[in-house]
Amino acid sequence: MRVTRSIVIDETELVERFIHASGPGGQNVNKVATAVELRYDVLRSSALSDSVRARLVALAGRKISGDGVLVIAAQRFRSQARNRADARERLAGLIRAAATPPRTRHATKPTRASKRRRLDDKRRRGELKRERRGNDD
């Protein structure tokens, strides 16, 4: 499964289990296992670099089990094929998001005009409070 130009996941690394779905589907819900539970072992995968792996673990949150297996459950659609495609697309989306490194923050200084505005507002606020005080003569 191709995720990005540089990341290709081997099909053998993905484990799919089909389970009964809840929700709409009529009698079909009780007969056919249309929901898909997709499992992907993030920690043991050879397709991911260490930096992407760390970002994926952070992004996935509760979807990752204690032993590093990412579990995606898909039951949005009534057909098994569409749920399977949905689960794979969601996995690919998570990996794509983890593959883009976060942008570095560049420190900037406030402009002279913004400093002046801040000090003017402070001065006005102080004058307003001074005017509210009662005179003790």
Write the layout of secondary structure elements.
Blueprint: E1 14-19, H1 28-31, E2 35-41, H2 50-60, E3 69-74, H3 80-99, H4 112-132
**CATH class term of the domain at 11-99:** Alpha Beta
Biggest sheet strand order reads 1-2-3
* SS class: alpha+beta
Write down the overall mean pLDDT.
Answer: 88
User: What's the architecture of the domain at 11-99 in CATH terms?
Assistant: 2-Layer Sandwich
- Note the beta-strand portion: 5-15%
Radius of gyration: 27 Å
What is the string of SSEs from the N terminus onward? EHEHEHH
Which stretches of 5+ consecutive residues score pLDDT under 50? none
Question: What is the approximate shape?
Answer: elongated
Q: State the share of residues found in helices, binned by percent.
A: 40-55%
- Describe the largest sheet: 3 strands, antiparallel
Number of helices: 4
Query: Total number of β-strand segments?
Result: 3
Structural notes for this entry:
By secondary structure, this protein is of the alpha+beta class. It has a domain at 11-99: Double Stranded RNA Binding Domain (2-Layer Sandwich). Helices cover 41% and strands 14% of the residues. It contains four helices and three strands, in the order βαβαβαα. A three-stranded antiparallel β-sheet has the order 1-2-3, with helices on one face. It is elongated and about 85 Å long. The N and C termini lie far apart (84 Å). The mean pLDDT is 88.
